[in-house]
Amino acid sequence: MSPRKEGPSGLVVVDKPGGLTSHGVVSRMRRLAGTRRVGHAGTLDPMATGVLVIGVERATRLLGHLALTEKEYAATIRLGRTTVTDDAEGEVTAEVSAAGVTRTAVDAGVAALTGAILQVPSKVSAIKVDGVRSYTRVREGEEFELAARPVTVSAFTVGEVRVPDGAPDLLDIDVTVTCSSGTYIRALARDLGAGLGVGGHLTALRRTRVGPYDLTGARTLEQLEEAFEVLPIERAAAAAFPRWDVDADQARLLGNGVRIATPALGPGTHAAFGPDGRFLALVEEHQGRAKIVAGFGQ
């Protein structure tokens, strides 16, 4: 039996619609790509929309590295109401009037949540506790606590602040957030409301960027149904990582897993390319030599 012929390897930047899970998008991409070798870099909640990076064939091996990159979001936080899920899809657990909250107080609360902070993830996250997803434990009514984790919120900007129609005790705040991987925007909404003493939750979330991939290059599912194509793996790697071009001898040695000498690449992961432009590997400099993080030469 001859081996299956691999289709094009690359990324698809999807503008995910609301109401669909990330796994649901992957299922659609598997059908369009004609392969089960499809994955995504960083889950989006069903309520959320925006950039979801999909990897096809060999590019699935890029996803774990892309998931660690910086992300940007546009969101709306509602003050005056707390929910069990920290977003609009959960049961309301408390209401405290936000009518007296000032813009000065909002700005101070946002400033306290900017920079290197410790954040307790939302309990309905996919984090595992003793091997069981946190959201599963919530559904089963279990009482538990999640440990705080270090995250970086490099920008947390307040836009429009308004009172929703017919709800004078609530306050809606439009924000944009730039943050490290692992930051929960729902938790920022929760913590902002808690810090202001009125509670808060997320009513809208749109991811606008994952690393170098943003909405300008994203396509809707309808557009992909009409014309499906991937961003070739070479272009995807060059966009996401600093490029290191090697000669033919170096390319051969890298292909054999040899830790070849490197120039001063600097910290972080680099994409190594052969003289023919072929993407060979993700590497990191270690004591003057290239440590192969993931090989892509075959």
Describe this structure in words.
This protein is an alpha+beta fold and 298 residues long. The protein folds into three domains: 10-68 and 211-234, Pseudouridine synthase, CATH 3.30.2350.10; 71-210, Pseudouridine synthase, CATH 3.30.2350; 241-295, Archaeosine Trna-guanine Transglycosylase, Chain: A, domain 4 (Roll). Helices cover 22% and strands 35% of the residues. It contains eight helices and 18 strands. The protein has helices at 22-33, 63-66, 103-112, 134-139, 185-195, 221-226, 233-240, 248-255; strands at 10-16, 38-41, 49-56, 71-79, 81-83, 92-95, 115-119, 128-129, 132-133, 149-162, 171-179, 200-210, 213-214, 231-232, 243-245, 269-273, 279-286, 289-295. The strands form four sheets. Strands 1, 2, 3, 4, 7, 10, 11, 12, 13 and 14 form a ten-stranded mixed sheet that branches. Strands 15-16-17-18 form a four-stranded mixed sheet. The chain has a two-stranded antiparallel ribbon with strand order 5-6. The chain is elongated and about 70 Å long. It starts with 9 loop residues before the first strand and ends with a strand. The mean pLDDT is 90. This is tRNA pseudouridine synthase B. It catalyses: uridine(55) in tRNA = pseudouridine(55) in tRNA. Responsible for synthesis of pseudouridine from uracil-55 in the psi GC loop of transfer RNAs. Residues 186-229 form the tRNA pseudouridylate synthase B C-terminal domain. Its EC number is 5.4.99.25.
